Backbone:
């Protein structure tokens, strides 16, 4: 929108262009006072709840005691960080974060794409809509409810274990066995979010011009040819952008999921940085160490996001030509 | 198959479906049907279990799915009659979802609207301030210290104020506002309306579909959120449904429901059924609402995918 359309054009205005920035600021504040006023709550919010905690990160360089506060606690330099790098629990949590994240990228990332391609092949509208409604359902359940459902499925007299025993196996304690826990995490993540994540790909698929399909059919292409020759290449830019976003969030492996599903017997494979931060902070009340672990994650995450955003920008520029 | 032929005729392509294509349609349909069944199965079994009479369950303690001899709501009546806690928790959850969603939507709209005005001096700088919060965060403990420092822990406000704005949704909303032609608000301003009047009287009615989508996102967040309760709320009388459910599931003990005198009932249902009833009542409201808002949230996600 051209700015001249909303400014009243009167000759006095032009002289103000030369005025100092202070007077320009005042003019802007007066002219747009309502717009700035509307911004006040939002800006206050991020200053308090986003920038406040960032300043609060100084406690990761302190031997922080909640009774003494940020100003009364003793500074200890990088002690908390060196403690972390020597702590086997933290290193295990870091390793688990990377491994679970990798599993999720390998298994949960492609599923919504395949699902969207399948749904796109359905020509009967009522069936298509019902499928979509059903697969979106788990997204609306909290991880607490999901845990209840998963527990019902996997408990010793649940259906899965009944099947295992019917085939002559021994009862498997999926949620407390280190061999199965990560599998449960990845599968439950797929179950909960694959439908929801397919929305974006379905939207992209809806944009494929019908003529493309028609001419391919004229040329005698079958359905499989069309999927791999037209649909998939058409949504490839969306896939790449979603992939870069996903990589940028590589350290976010699902705090609510893990904290709902895990228990002490699977800490060795299931503990992630977020749950480590939570435990050390809220249960052991080692605020300094916990904040340091959180900062460690935030800094790496920030670097990843910025790096991936740059990749994305580069990709978008290249794909324009 | 009749439908398939029909749609092809609609597309005015006169090509017969080959055998391979037909087999492909059938398989893809079947695969999707199986996926839907697998998605629904865990939910349906829990629901069915909660509706099965106690007698059936006691007789088959080890089978997962018991085909009920009749459907009964007795366990729900039992749950709601016996427990004061579930009422309190339900009230807190509903109150939090209503007030929280309203607060979040208000904050989102009043922040997004000015930032959608390209002519607003300082807009880019302020936007950068918001964008930065998306890429870097102080983390759990410092945020807790801020909330604690504000002396709102263990109050209802701790469930509302620390999550009063989601910057990502604000950016989606801003993209939407920016797509509304400036001429509309300009005409109103010439008639003497202030920016606030323009926003609430003219722009908001146009933005209702996006507000429905983002409102649903916020409502889902508030209904389902439990980690902030774990961190900020110790007082059990302020626990929402999810937190109560979490405690029952983790401790595997329905004692948390404070079922009172009824706990001594002779025909006491197994604890797992009461847990399942709590599961169902915590999930049901959202499960009933989202299908009606489907077209809105699909649009909402699509606006979000357009770079703003």
Residues:
């Amino acid at each position: 929108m051209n700015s001249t359309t909303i400014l009243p054009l009167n000759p006095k205005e032009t002289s103000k262009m030369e005025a100092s920035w202070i007077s320009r600021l005042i003019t802007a504040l007066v002219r747009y006072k309502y717009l700035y006023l509307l911004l006040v709550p939002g800006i206050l919010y991020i200053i308090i709840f986003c920038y406040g905690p960032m300043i609060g990160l100084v406690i990761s360089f302190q031997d922080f005691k909640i009774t003494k506060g940020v100003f009364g606690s003793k500074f200890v330099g990088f002690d908390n960080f060196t403690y972390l790098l020597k702590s086997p629990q933290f290193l295990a949590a870091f390793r688990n974060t990377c491994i679970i994240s990798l599993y999720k990228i390998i298994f949960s990332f492609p599923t919504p794409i395949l699902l969207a391609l399948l749904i796109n092949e359905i020509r009967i509208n009522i069936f298509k809509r019902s499928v979509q409604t059903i697969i979106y359902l788990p997204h609306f359940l909290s991880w607490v409810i999901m845990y209840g459902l998963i527990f019902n499925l996997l408990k010793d007299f649940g259906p899965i274990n009944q099947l295992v025993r019917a085939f002559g196996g021994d009862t498997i304690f999926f949620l407390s066995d280190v061999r199965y826990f990560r599998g449960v995490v990845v599968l439950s993540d797929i179950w909960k979010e694959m439908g929801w994540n397919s929305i974006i790909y379905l939207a992209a698929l809806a944009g494929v011009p019908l003529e493309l399909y028609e001419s391919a059919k004229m040329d005698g292409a079958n359905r499989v040819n069309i999927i791999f020759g037209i649909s998939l290449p058409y949504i490839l830019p969306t896939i790449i952008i979603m992939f870069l976003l996903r990589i940028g969030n590589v350290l976010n492996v699902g705090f609510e999921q893990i904290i709902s599903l895990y228990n002490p017997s699977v800490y060795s494979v299931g503990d992630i940085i977020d749950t480590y931060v939570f435990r050390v902070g809220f249960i052991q009340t080692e605020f300094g160490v916990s904040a340091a672990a959180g900062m460690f994650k935030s800094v790496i995450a920030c670097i990843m996001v910025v790096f991936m955003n740059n990749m994305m920008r580069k990709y978008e520029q290249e794909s324009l030509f | 198959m009749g439908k398939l032929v029909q749609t092809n005729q609609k597309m005015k392509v006169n090509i017969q479906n080959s055998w391979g294509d037909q087999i492909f349609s059938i398989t893809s349909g079947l695969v999707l049907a199986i996926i839907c069944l697998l998605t629904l199965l865990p939910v349906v079994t829990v629901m069915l279990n909660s509706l099965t009479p106690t007698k059936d369950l006691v007789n088959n303690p080890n089978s997962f799915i018991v085909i009920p001899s009749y459907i009964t709501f007795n366990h729900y009546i039992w749950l709601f009659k016996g427990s004061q806690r579930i009422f309190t928790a339900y009230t807190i959850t509903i109150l939090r979802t209503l007030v929280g969603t309203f607060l979040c939507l208000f904050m989102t709209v009043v922040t997004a609207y000015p930032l959608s005005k390209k002519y607003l001096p300082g807009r880019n700088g302020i936007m950068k301030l918001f964008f930065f919060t998306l890429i870097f965060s102080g983390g759990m403990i410092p945020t807790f210290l801020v909330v604690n420092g504000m002396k709102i822990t263990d109050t209802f406000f701790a469930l509302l104020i620390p999550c009063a704005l989601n910057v990502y949704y604000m950016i989606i909303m801003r993209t939407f506002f920016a797509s509304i032609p400036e001429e509309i608000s300009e005409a109103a301003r010439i008639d003497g309306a202030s920016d606030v009047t323009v926003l609430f009287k003219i722009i908001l009615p146009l933005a209702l579909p996006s507000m429905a989508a983002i409102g649903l996102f916020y409502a889902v967040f508030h209904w389902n959120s439990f980690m902030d309760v774990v961190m900020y709320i110790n007082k059990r009388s302020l626990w929402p449904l999810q937190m109560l459910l979490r405690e029952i599931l983790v401790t595997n003990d329905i004692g948390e429901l404070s079922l009172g005198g009824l706990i001594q009932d002779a025909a006491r249902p197994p604890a797992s059924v009461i847990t399942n009833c709590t599961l169902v009542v915590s999930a049901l409201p959202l499960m009933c609402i989202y299908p009606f808002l489907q077209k809105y949230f699909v649009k909402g996600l699509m606006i979000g995918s357009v770079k703003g």
